[in-house]
Amino acid sequence: MGVLELDYSQYQTVYNVLSLALASMLATFIFLLVVQGRVLPRYRQALVVSAMVCLIAAYHYYRIFNSFTGSYVAVDEGTAAAAMDSMTYVLVNGEGFNEGYRYVDWLLTVPLLLFETIAVLALPRAVRKSMLLKLIPASVLMIVLGYPGEIAVDNVTKGVWGALSTIPFLYILYVLFVELSRAAKDQPTQVGKDLNGLRWLLLATWGVYPISYMIPMFGIEGADAFVWRQVGYSVADVLAKCLFGLLIYKIAREKSADDSATFAEEELEAAPSSK
Ligand code: RET
User: Fold this and answer.
1) Are 143 and 107 contacting, i.e. CB atoms less than 8 angstroms apart?
2) What pLDDT is recorded for position 275?
3) CA–CA separation, 89 vs 92, rounded Å?
4) pLDDT tens column, 161-183
5) Can you list the domains of the chain with their CATH numbers?
6) What's the DSSP call for residue 152?
7) Closest Cα partner for 62 from 110, 26, 103?
8) Distance CA 50, CA 85 (A)
9) CB-side exposure of 258: number of CA atoms within 13 Å?
10) Which residues in the chain come in under a pLDDT of 70?
11) Which atom of ligand 1 is nearest to the CA of 214?
12) What percent of the chain has pLDDT over 90?
């Protein structure tokens, strides 16, 4: 889909933000793989899953980027060929800009993000299982219900699907903020602190998605709405995947140091004296 025409700065904004997201995903993917050895084995699965999320996203950003550059061509309407502001980019016939890649990406990465959140807390097996059985189906439902509204052109259809998708979204927040707190009550205080950090980052970044989705409903129209949506989704993706992955790594390291005195000594204490 996409809009029919973008001006020079609108085109550049989308182009650059997609490129930034692709670079961030690739770099975080490599980082999370390289640091595997710097946490105890029991926390490595969370890091592997987080790296997978970044790789899946990098692939999709590559596809989104190509879809974008393939669907808009530059037309110079001015007399001076060098004048950038006379340049417009028009949507060419063909497949068009494919918004679906984002939803395919989320369908895979959102359940994985929830999995890594639960995994790094190292809760008892039964608690882990019961949380995931609630969170994962709800996250799939949230994405599937959001898609028809994303591709809809009128605001009423968008609103209806958006509202339906918000129900599982609120349920996920309820499970993370209420049920998970109850389940983690008997855990060491550090788990409680980690959990708090993770879910506030999660709420702050996940909240950007429905806001970006609703941009056309705020009266922003046409190309501006398109550009803001791409910027919103891409920035939110970088925070929800890369920054979140780095926080998972930080927590995994702290927990490793708490769990094992040898690890703490080798990884934390030995570092300054080895200089
Ligand atoms: C939609 C539709 C409108 C209502 C809501 C939505 C929520 C989307 C979210 C997406 C999160 C994606 C993540 C991706 C990172 O990998 C589908 C936009 C509530 C919360 C975290």
Assistant:
1) yes
2) 40
3) 9
4) 999 999 999 999 999 999 988 88
5) 5-259 (1.20.1070.10)
6) -
7) 26
8) 41
9) 15
10) 1-2, 77-85, 269-275
11) 3
12) 67
Q: What is the share, in percent, of the chain residues with pLDDT greater than 70?
A: 93
Protein residues with CB under 6 Å of any ligand 1 atom: 106, 109-110, 113, 142-143, 146, 162, 165-166, 169, 206, 209-210, 213, 237, 240-241
Whole-number Å distance, alpha carbon 149 to ligand 1 midpoint, is 12
CA of 83 to the centre of ligand 1 (A): 39
Write b or e for each residue in 56-72: b if 16 or more Cβ atoms lie within 10 A of its Cβ, otherwise e. bbbbbbebbbebbeebb
pTM: 0.91
Q: Which residues contact 45 (CB under 8 A, 6 or more apart)?
A: 119
Render pLDDT for 195-218 as a digit per residue (tens, 0 to 9).
888 889 999 999 999 999 999 888
Close Cβ partners of 15 (under 8 Å, ≥ 6 residues apart): 65, 68, 69
Phi and psi angles of residue 91, each rounded to the nearest 5 degrees, phi first: -75, 125
- Calculate how far, in angstroms, residue 129's C-alpha sits from the geometric centre of ligand 1: 23
